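User: Predict the full complex structure for these chains.
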Amino acid sequence: MTQNGWKELGLIAGLVVIAAFVPIMTDGYWLTIAVTAMMYIALATAWTLFSGPTHYISLATGAFFGVGGYLVATGMSDHDISFWTMAAVAPLVAVALAALVGAATLRLSGIYFVIFTLGLAEMIRGLVSWVQNNFLGSRGLYVLTDFTEAHIYWMLLGVAAIVYLIGWLIERSKLGFALKIIGNDEGVAKHLGINTAAAKVMLFMITGYFTALVGVIIAPRYSYIEPNLVFSPELSFMVVIMALLGGTQRLWGPIIGVIPFILLWETITVSFPYSTTLFLGLSFLLIVYFIPNGVVGLIEKFWKRRDA
Amino acid sequence: MTKPGRPLLKVQGLTKRFGGLVAVDTMTFDVHENEVLGLIGPNGSGKTTTMNLISGAFPPSSGSITMNGRRLSGLPAHKIAREGVARTFQLVRILPGLSLIDNVVAGAAFGHRKRWGLEAEQFARDLLERIGLGDQIHLPVGSLTYIDQKRLELARALASEPKVLLLDEWLAGLNPTELQDGIDLISQLRQEGRTIILVEHVMDAIRSLCDRCIVMNSGAKIAEGTPSDVLSDPEVIRAYLGDE
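Assistant: Here is the predicted structure of the two-chain assembly.
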């Protein structure tokens, strides 16, 4: 184990402790923003677990997130199941979905995978709406709990910390090494004895689990859930943009990307509430064009120049 | 030098069709232990496709490949690699995002004879020394010359200690000095008693390295024997140069 690895983990642990004090320091407006930021930190880190090393751009975040949020709502509203039971079950459903989708699509490469994951979220949203309207009656689903914003924040922080730890462990494992090779040259990876499909599906399932778990935790915040809200394609794009802005070659990259983007996003939604999608697209273009390796890439370039 | 031993790899009736094109047509041959077998023939005769079938890049349309009696044909590439078949690629394919050491560890970690951690790193270091990359170990992979990239790819293939090594035009694209270095390197592997199938166009290399040659034309085997025998075979000359 390298010394740098421990240093990184120590730094992150320190950040987690500091972040835990946020709800005590502030409430109201800034806590609301902090909850949103923490949600995206957890989502973007989970996304990077899979997409970082493999370079497979997944737009399935909305699908997994939606499965989490929607199942909690159905379970609590229609079947009187407790929040905690649903929190245990819903992510497992997402894992099953990830396994299914993974097995079907991860044999495809590049652009086909991207399009499929985007289509998946849309298809599930349509399917769930259709089932609800035709068979379950179009009544609302409520997620009523005693959680405050602070509770939700701490739970999200916990999930983000666990995702990071898992990512840190994977990075240092044989599985992590295999994923790196896959990201470099998948054909070579196969010829070196790597079961590429299994490695990719495994990571996709882990990402699916935690993405759904975030959907579960955030559901009480919305109180009222409908498919169009939780199976949101915008969410999938937001996560990709933030991860790319931070940089996906390091696990801590997305964290750096999320915070400035959330603040920027907040300004945009307040100032231009009717053209948010326009700005979303614009920021996507600017990031990909000007900082393709993200903030992490800029920092590392700076370090290298200083060392040289 | 070790004498060629019993048959290790058996190829029987191997056929590959791409739509209407028969790229490999009922090829049958054996590869013996400790033997260097040359697979030669004009461009488009199906040599690389044969290599791809052996390494499992794609499955054959019919026919079989077995190693030590265990069936390889039909297995996915990663399982064939684990059985002990390693290869290099016609157009060199190193892993650009990894260090030299990790490029070789990549070959050792998942293949036939698995190594991981410090053991794998030490093993990779030794291999890089032996293959002539000792001085470049800490350089970025992108700064390697063409022959050094080929060396690296060879080290990666050797790292799994394969039973059979497939070299697909490993000597192609080298300048005359590099070519002599390359031939020496493979001849060293031969003296270590490795079993190698090589696809090659460089006639000097074929003459000095191969114990036996198989000549392909239009997907089928047209000759088999020692390099000097097959290279003087009239049908082989016709395949390369056309009718007089």
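DSSP finds nine helices and ten strands in chain B.
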